UniProtKB/TrEMBL annotation:
It is an enzyme of class 2 (transferase). It holds the Pfam family Aminotran_3. N(2)-acetyl-L-ornithine binds at R143, S281. It comes from Pendulispora albinea. The lineage of its organism: Bacteria, Pseudomonadati, Myxococcota, Myxococcia, Myxococcales. Pyridoxal 5'-phosphate binds at G107, T108, F140, D224, E225, V226, Q227, T282. GO terms for molecular function: transaminase activity. HAMAP family: ArgD_aminotrans_3. It catalyses: N(2)-acetyl-L-ornithine + 2-oxoglutarate = N-acetyl-L-glutamate 5-semialdehyde + L-glutamate. Its cofactor is pyridoxal 5'-phosphate. Its EC number is 2.6.1.11. Homodimer. It is found in: Cytoplasm. The gene is argD. This is Acetylornithine aminotransferase.
Length: 408
């Protein structure tokens, strides 16, 4: 008799469009930082659906809000206002100092809005020659044709006839940005830390230099906080650390805590760049999504999750530093901020190949780039759970290390 999980996997193979090559495990429920598969096996979730489930799975307050809002109002239309969208826009602006919020359904959509905003801003000013965007190698901004035109990894772009007018330069390289700058540049877009690109931080002063360059050339400065926002790095927004003000930012992932919500936040300067009727979506700003995001923000406050990300993230980094010291043949470095942390493996190791071994230990982690094992746990994770995850990772790394030494 096939197990419930085997039965589901057999159907998945035939019916699900397999664009992500998922691991052969089917999840049916979650609680906090734990997930349970169709055979009721427990896993410790230290990736939170790539930094999405910020308040953990099935948080009671979030579940209650979603149930109540579903019973009150789920959707109207963007041709009318709804109370939850107004409150969410106000709340996001109040917390971040931005002037207005455009509400959408994903990180891709938030970045697509940034791109359209930048080009339409200059079109509105009669500067039709300003449409080029500077983005970075290894950046990830999403997979719609607009967003993927800014994404910097060739494998995501190949074969799709991706529209042009985006110049990619090495991340962290101010001189390269200077060289790429010109009177036709509408915007520079960057992640505060490259997430998919390998939990890769920018050198100190990089964002201040980008801001200055954009000001000097009259271009907009855009920041993608989709992976880093909502407390992930130990600050509500990652870029707060640098004290640099972008003209607009993209948010998603952790904002909905597992529910699809995205937002573009804009300053006054570009608030009218997309005049009414020029951009929108059916579901963007729907009351169920907005009530969910508001609930996530309340939980982030009530449980002091931003501060928690800072202290627990520091503890995690210490544990991984120790691992690097213990197994220098397998591990090169640990890096990251708050609860967005990566373990860089030595040349020759492939992070994606190591993941199934960790999964066998009952722990879920994800890769970032080719050689980085990424931690992006729910912000409600405990230090004990992080230690459990690192202990499992240690067993796997010890085996890799022994295998490499055996082969040498
Ligand atoms: N920007 C960044 C920085 C991301 O990490 C991601 C998702 N990994 C996206 C955009 C795309 O977001 P979504 O998958 O919600 O469209």
């Amino acid at each position: 008799m096939p197990s419930p999980q085997e039965e589901l996997l057999e159907i998945a193979k035939r019916r699900l469009y397999g664009n992500y090559r998922p691991a052969p495990v089917v999840f049916v429920r979650g609680q906090g930082c734990e997930l349970f598969d169709a055979n009721d096996q427990r896993y410790l979730d230290l990736c939170a659906g790539v930094a999405v489930c910020s308040v953990g799975h099935a948080h009671p307050a979030l579940v209650k809000t979603i149930a109540e809002q579903a019973g009150r109002l789920m959707h109207v239309s963007n041709y009318f206002y709804n109370d939850q969208a107004i409150r969410l826009a106000d709340e996001l602006c109040r917390r971040t100092g931005f002037a207005q919020a455009f509400l959408c359904n994903s990180g891709t959509e938030a970045n697509e809005a940034l791109l359209k905003l930048a080009r339409r801003h200059f079109y509105g000013l009669g500067q039709t020659g300003r449409a080029r965007v500077i983005a970075f190698d290894n950046a990830f901004h999403g997979r719609s044709l607009g967003a993927v035109s800014m994404t910097g990894t060739p494998k995501y772009r190949e074969g799709f006839g991706v529209p042009g007018n985006v110049t990619h330069v090495p991340y962290g390289d101010v001189e390269a940005v200077k060289k790429a700058m010109g009177p036709d540049v509408a915007a520079v877009i960057a992640e505060p830390i490259q997430g998919e690109g390998g939990v890769f931080p920018a050198p100190a002063g990089f964002f201040a230099s980008l801001r200055a360059l954009c000001d000097e050339h009259g271009a907009l400065f855009l920041i993608d906080e989709v992976q880093t926002g909502i407390g992930r790095t130990g600050r509500f927004l990652a870029l707060e650390k640098d004290g640099v003000r972008p003209d607009a930012i993209a948010l998603a992932k952790g904002l909905g805590g597992g529910f699809p919500v995205g937002a573009m936040l804009t300053t006054e300067k570009v608030a009218n760049a997309l005049p009414p009727g020029t951009h929108g979506s059916t579901f963007g700003g729907n009351p169920l999504a907005c009530a969910t995001a508001l609930s996530v923000l309340r939980i982030v406050d009530d449980e002091k999750l931003v501060e928690g990300a800072r202290t627990k993230g520091a503890a995690l980094l210490r544990m991984l530093d120790e691992l690097v010291r213990e197994f220098p043949n397998a591990c090169e470095a640990a890096r990251g901020e708050g609860l967005l942390v990566g373990l860089l493996l030595r040349e020759g190791f492939v992070a994606r190949d190591v993941l199934p071994l960790i999964q066998r230990e009952g722990v879920l982690l994800i890769a970032a780039g080719d050689r980085v094992i990424r931690f992006a746990p729910p912000l409600v994770v405990t230090e004990a759970q992080l230690a459990e995850g690192v202990a499992a990772l240690r067993r796997v790394v010890a085996a890799l290390d022994a295998a490499r030494r055996g082969a040498a």
